[in-house]
UniProtKB/TrEMBL annotation:
This is GNAT family acetyltransferase. One of its GO terms (molecular function) is acyltransferase activity, transferring groups other than amino-acyl groups. The keyword Transferase applies. Residues 30-178 form the N-acetyltransferase domain. The keyword Transferase applies. Keywords: Transferase. Pfam families: Acetyltransf_3. It comes from the Bacteria. SUPFAM superfamilies: Acyl-CoA N-acyltransferases (Nat) (SSF55729).
């Protein structure tokens, strides 16, 4: 894989209920509104945002990473969250995915729909052997989602919790495309 392999992914795509577009600075204010919600930030392992500037900086930082890509999630032309690849492990041919939704959209099948569309893209277009997600143990909705899509807990890691300013445990969920492909 070369440094620009993520460019093989579309700039936007649609599912039955969603439109996903590559995140731009134009999305900063609506994403700020989501990332400044303490209930959402708690599961993102970040301190809730207090200014649009923080959202702009996060968007710029992700855009500058060659092995990361972020999509803004729209439902009926309203920004309801974001999703993307946080990191690629070239040695293992895997990618870390991450996502968040505005609280009003939790537990409505949105992430199931999105992942059922996007995971085959990662397998078939980028030829990843698998994906993984890091989940705070208290995030039961994400745990249920990932298990439903045949992700398995492969371990735990200690990560710096921006909100609590201490190390905290995250669960690592892996989906091996060669082992399972239930989308």
């Amino acid at each position: 894989m070369n440094a620009h392999f993520l460019s093989a992914l579309p700039d936007q795509f649609t599912t039955d209920r969603l439109l996903l577009k590559k995140t731009t600075l134009q999305d900063a204010f609506p994403l700020f509104q989501i990332w400044s919600d303490s209930a959402v930030a708690e599961y993102m392992n970040i301190e809730k945002f207090s200014s649009v500037y923080q959202a702009e900086e996060m968007i710029k930082a992700i855009a500058a990473e060659p092995d990361a890509i972020r999509y803004t999630i729209f439902s009926q032309e309203k920004v309801i969250g974001s999703f993307g690849i946080n990191e690629v492990n070239v040695a293992n041919n895997t990618a870390e995915i991450g996502y968040e939704l505005a609280k009003n959209y939790w537990r409505k099948g949105i992430m199931t729909e999105l992942l059922r569309y996007f995971l085959p893209l990662l397998q078939n277009k980028l030829h990843f052997s698998g994906v993984y997600a890091k989940v705070i143990p208290e995030n039961t909705a994400s745990t249920i989602l990932l298990k439903k899509l045949d992700f398995e807990i492969s371990g735990e890691a200690q990560e710096w919790d921006q909100d609590n300013k201490q190390l905290s445990t995250v669960l690592i969920f892996e989906h091996n495309f060669k082992k399972t492909s239930t989308f």
